[in-house]
Specification:
homodimer; Pnp Oxidase, Chain A; alpha+beta
Chain lengths: ~220, ~220
């Protein structure tokens, strides 16, 4: 997972942003960070000529993004059969209040990946993909919970999407008000941070009373 | 915005969920709640035969979802010209830890809307759409900040998407472990809530010192 040896992000016509060039980053480190921080992505594909966008679990290993879902879901089947996909992950960081409505905005980080996914097959490769997905959703669970049976492994679809064609778009910082508005408008201007945090773990109703919350869950809350 | 007079959600083949029927809701009230709580949606469309998914600001008024962006953005132009779109909004509520990796999951609420958007034109209609969008992102800003000039109004694209063909999918509750795992597996099982909250407002660096945080921003934090 060496960050330094990774190729720069592509700059194909699709990822060469036309708008807001100052928000376009080509930083692979930033791409990785967005994908590692976001818990879900949105998988887009074309089914019967029409766009479909579904929230999807994901996990990154180096320059591969793993996706998964039920092996019977039509969107996953189409994506695993080599359909072109667009995967987008978005982190909303702040609402930006400006003196003008025009410059109200959001501070955010988003990653868009284009490409064709491949269905991961073979026991070892599938277990590796599932491990990456599990450790993204719930770090520490892979070694704590019961692993998949052969039947369970067959019932889940794991897709692998290379991070070859990708773009990152972010906005940070204060509002970009017009100088005349800064001078003349009395409205408040600034940023309102949107925080994400973990709440207290809630044990399952059928968990044996007194079962302690394990360290891998506990440390996520701290 | 009467909830009771709204038609039930459609059940076309696309929105008739094949998987996890117990997670499929057809509750229009729930659809509205998801769209009102999510701050951004993901707009999917087909450009040059390929899927594109972009994070997009939104705001709901009754059975209309307004979307907006720069009037020069190719995705907005295509969507406003009547291309089919799929708009998905997802709220992630909890990570679900189970005794088996197979039943690790997420509690979430997602809304998927299919249809064709129309570009909102005409000064009054566009102002109405912008008001809905503004009050969704930053309630109270419409009456507090400077309104759009004619030039600014011309430079923004507002789209209106009817909530005719939509589906809601949610998962709530504890892990759904197999009975054998509940009896035999020692792993912890439960839910870890993901909280969203507003942090303290950060004034713009060029805001006059001593400018108070207005009530419409302040009350969001409380």
């Amino acid at each position: 997972m060496s960050e330094t040896s990774a190729p720069p992000l592509s700059s194909t016509p699709r990822t060469r942003l036309n708008r807001a060039k100052n928000r376009a980053g080509t930083d692979r480190v930033q791409l990785h960070r967005i994908l590692d921080e976001a818990l879900v992505c949105h998988l887009g594909l074309v089914l019967d000529g029409r766009p479909v966008v579904l929230p999807t679990g994901m996990g990154r290993d180096g320059e591969t993004l793993y996706l998964h879902g039920s092996s019977g879901a039509s969107s996953l089947l189409a994506a695993g059969a080599g359909a072109e996909v667009c995967v987008t992950a978005t982190l909303l960081d702040e609402v930006v209040y400006a003196r003008s409505l025009q410059h109200h905005s959001m501070n955010y980080r988003s990653a868009v990946i284009y490409g064709r996914a491949r269905a991961v097959t073979g026991r070892d490769a599938k277990l590796h993909g599932l491990r990456v997905l599990t450790e993204h959703l719930s770090p520490g669970s892979w070694d704590h919970a019961r692993g998949p049976s052969a039947k369970e492994l067959a019932g889940v679809a794991v897709l692998a999407l290379p991070l070859d064609e990708a773009s990152v778009k972010t906005r940070t910082g204060p509002p970009a008000d017009d100088p005349a508005d800064v001078a003349e408008q009395p409205a408040w201007a600034g940023r309102l941070p949107l925080r994400r945090s973990w709440g207290e773990p809630v044990p399952a109703p059928d968990l044996a009373p007194g079962t302690p919350v394990p360290e891998h869950v506990r440390r996520r809350v701290r």
